[in-house]
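Researcher: Re-running this chain for the archive, since the previous output was lost when a drive failed. Same request as before.
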Amino acid sequence: MRMSVKTALLAGAFAAGLAALPAAAQDYGYGAPGASPQDVIVQAPRMRHYTPQRSTIGAPIVDVGLSAPVRYDDLDLTTDWGVRKLHTRIFVAARRLCQRLDNRYPITVSDGAPSCYRQAVDDAMMQADAAVDRAYGG
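Model: Regenerated structure tokens:
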């Protein structure tokens, strides 16, 4: 995997910038800021770099990610409309988070890895499916 110089800058920017982001969270469960059991957490995935542990200029490589809660307590998940609305909210949140992540840390994704958007949507859809199951009493 080839590391860019921009990846090296990620370490410094991560420490200073991520703490100031309102949607940033280290805990990607319901502990995310503003999250409740009536939320689906959309997470722009962490960038994982296994080797080398330092960039080509010697800076440490850090995993970063953004997450945001998507409310559904105002939706009736037993209706097609409610489920479609939840899915739309997830798509929009995933797109926004991945764009923010890409704008703040424009690095190349490793070969063969799914896109940020695809990973964020897939993870959130599992949570959405579980919420729909609960709405039907399952």
